[in-house]
Amino acid sequence: MLQLAPARAAGDTLWATPNPCDTSIDIHLALAINDSVTLTLVNSFGKIIKTFYNKTLIAAGDYTLHYNTDSLPNGIYFLSLNRKTYKRNIKMIKAKGTDVQEWTGDKTLMMVPTVCSGYYTFNRSDVTSVEVYNGQGQYLLKTNVDNQRVNLSALPMGLYYLRGMTRSGEQLPTISLLRSIE
Length: 182
Prior knowledge:
Blueprint: E1 13-17, E2 24-31, E3 35-43, E4 48-58, E5 61-68, E6 75-82, E7 87-94, E8 111-112, E9 115-116, E10 119-122, E11 127-134, E12 139-144, E13 149-151, E14 158-166, E15 171-179
Parallel strand pairs: 9-15
Antiparallel strand pairs: 1-2, 2-5, 3-4, 3-6, 6-7, 8-10, 10-13, 11-12, 11-14, 14-15
C-alpha cells in the first residue's frame, strides 16, 4: 500500500531505505519547490514496473512513499524522478531472503551516470571508443568517446552493455547502463 507523508521543506533529493530491500522499501523524496513530478520504478530491462506520480503537481516538502516489494522478483531496479529542471535516478536492489551487499571494489572502467537519458561520462581519459550491445548481448553499434563523454541519446529506453577500447587497443571489461526515460 502506498502512503504519502509530507514533512518539512528541503532541497531536491531522492533516496530509498533499506537498500537492498526484502519485503518493502521507503522511498524518500524532497522537493525544494512546487513542481510537476514523474516518479517511476523501472526494472533492469527498462520496463516501467510502477508509476508513483505521472506529471503530478506536488508541493515543496519531504515525502515518504512506503512500497510493498513482495510481488517483485529479486533483482536490480531503478527509481526515476523527473521534473522540468531536475532528473535523478537511483539504483534499488530487491533481495528477498538473501544477504546482498553492494560491491564497492576497484573497477577498471566506470561510467556515470549508469542511469541516464543521453550523455555518459567515463572515469578514464584513455577510452577512445565503445561498442554497444543490447540487453540480450547483440552488437548494436560502435561510437567514439569525445573528452571522456559519449552520447547515447539515440538509443531507446532499455538495458545496454558497453565495452570500452583504449588508445593502446586494450579492450576493457564490459559495463552495463540503463537508458532511462527522458
